[in-house]
Amino acid sequence: MSAIQHARFLASAASVADFPPETGPELAFAGRSNVGKSSALNALAGRKRLAFASKTPGRTQTINFFELGEAGRLADLPGYGYASVSQALRATWDDLIGGYLTGRRTLVGVVVLMDARRPLTDNDRKFLEWLRPVEASRLILLSKADKLPRAEQARTLAHTCAALDKAAMTSQVALFSSKSGEGVEATRNLLDTWLGNKKPPEKGN
Ligand code: GDP
After folding, report:
1. How far apart, in Å, do the first and last CA atoms of the chain sit?
2. CB-ligand 1 contact for 197 (6 Å cutoff)
3. Could you give the number of structural domains in the chain?
4. Does 92 map to a domain?
5. From the alpha carbon of 113, which atom of ligand 1 is closest?
6. β-pairing, 26-31 with 72-76?
7. Is residue 205 part of a domain?
8. Is 180 in the pocket of ligand 1 (CB under 6 A)?
9. Rounded distance from Cα 177 to ligand 1 centre (Å)
10. Is 203 domain-assigned?
11. Across the 205 residues of the chain, what is the mean pLDDT of every consecutive 10-residue run?
12. Using a 6 Å cutoff on CB, does residue 33 contact ligand 1?
């Protein structure tokens, strides 16, 4: 079984002071609100309802931490890009996420979800700029890929890779769909590799 299939809720943090201690390698999941992040986490964990972040704009935003068995932890970052939030709330979000990304020494990899139909929005690019100095592996998942025909999927993948190259941003990129299951197994495997949880293949394989 993959580490993420062992996910169990650990704690919610509304400020840097509330983060759980840095024990073991940690993964973070990010993406603009409504991009399909909760659905992706549920699909990866093989659970109906793992992620339960408050989604109401204007409410306190928290980072939700999960234990991944013995393998490490996962941090579900609050969705970015709400158009309607106040200046004050946005500043709180910046402190929380900025504090996490720049301060979390156990962070080994960041997964950023972007809508396959329109990846690299202004907010996505802003988030990637925040990530630039962070020393962690990166994976961009192009979510809701089932909404695109095959040819479009290939095109959006190629365009995203080219745009990242142009911006000198290093990241793996993959198509993902919580609905069809596309990308689920490959993502689990990559996350296991990041966590150092990859077992050698069994004899005879
Ligand atoms: P979050 O705000 O990023 O956590 O997004 P959610 O996971 O709650 O998903 C937002 C909306 O997109 C919901 O209506 C989901 O049913 C839908 N959705 C999420 N993932 C997929 C997917 O892979 N395919 C399709 N077609 N819809 C999806």
Report:
1. 16
2. no
3. 1
4. yes
5. 3
6. parallel
7. no
8. no
9. 9
10. no
11. 95 94 96 94 90 56 93 94 74 90 96 97 94 96 98 97 95 98 98 84 55
12. yes
CATH number at residue 152: 3.40.50.300
50 in a domain, yes or no? yes
This prediction has a pTM of 0.93
For the chain, give the secondary structure using H, E and C: CCHHHHEEEEEEECCHHHCCCCCCCEEEEEEECCCCHHHHHHHHHCCCCCCCCCCCCCCCCCEEEEEECCCEEEEECCCECCCCCCHHHHHHHHHHHHHHHHHCCCEEEEEEEEECCCCCCHHHHHHHHHHCCCCCEEEEEEECHHHCCHHHHHHHHHHHHHHHHHCCCCCEEEECCCCCCCCHHHHHHHHHHHHCCCCCCCCCC
Whether residue 38 has its Cβ less than 6 Å from ligand 1: yes
